[in-house]
Design brief:
The chain is mainly α. It folds into 2 domains: 96 residues, no CATH class; 44 residues, no CATH class. The protein has 8 helices and 2 strands. Strands 1-2 form a two-stranded parallel ribbon. Strand 1, helix 1 and strand 2 form a beta-alpha-beta unit. It is globular and about 60 Å long.
């Protein structure tokens, strides 16, 4: 009988200051259950992609995307909120579903404004994690077949340790120093 890996104990997880994810219901529920006091940043890239589902005319996709990008590129939260309010008013008549969706969802991407300006670019999306996921997928495809779960876990663990070492000693993905 195969033994499942031991689940991590959330009480042992220390130093988590921000969670960045997309709008996956399971991730949100897990975050609320295990780390309720940690701020959450919804991935701005995914928000911008999700908005396209509410754009009914193809010729409006690019202007809507540009407007959302300008909201997220605002110098601070106050300006982002002001730009969002303008966008919602502009979309209210031509695209009321988009306006309502934007008003309800885009503020979930504003948590990054609470971080220093130099760190916002790295904290506002899940790009760092997605890069790691692509590397894991690339490397596990080469192996193609694993004799057991433990062998796959060893490879993935080694890849993550390699990433951690690179981030600690080489190219720093996110500099938390003031």
């Amino acid at each position: 009988m195969a033994r499942l890996p031991r689940q991590p104990d959330p009480a042992r997880l220390k130093g988590v200051r921000l969670i960045v994810s997309d709008d996956h219901a399971g991730l949100k529920a897990a975050r609320r259950a295990t780390l309720p006091s940690v701020p959450w940043q919804r991935c701005q890239f995914h928000l911008q992609q999700n908005a396209q589902a509410y754009v009914t005319r193809l010729d409006q996709r690019k202007p809507v995307a540009q407007r959302i990008r300008s909201i997220f590129n605002a110098p601070d939260r106050v300006e982002a909120e002001r730009l969002l309010k303008q966008a919602v008013q502009a979309w209210a008549t031509d695209a009321p579903k988009l306006a309502q969706w934007a008003e309800d969802n885009l503020p979930e991407g504003f948590t990054a404004f609470d971080s220093p300006h130099a760190q916002r670019m790295r904290l506002r999306t899940t790009n760092g994690l997605e890069r790691i996921n692509r590397e894991i997928k690339r490397r596990t495809r080469v192996a193609s077949i694993f004799p057991n779960t433990a062998s796959c876990l060893r490879l993935v663990s080694a890849l993550l340790a390699e990433c951690d070492e690179e981030w600690m000693t080489g190219k720093i993905y996110l500099n938390l120093q003031p």
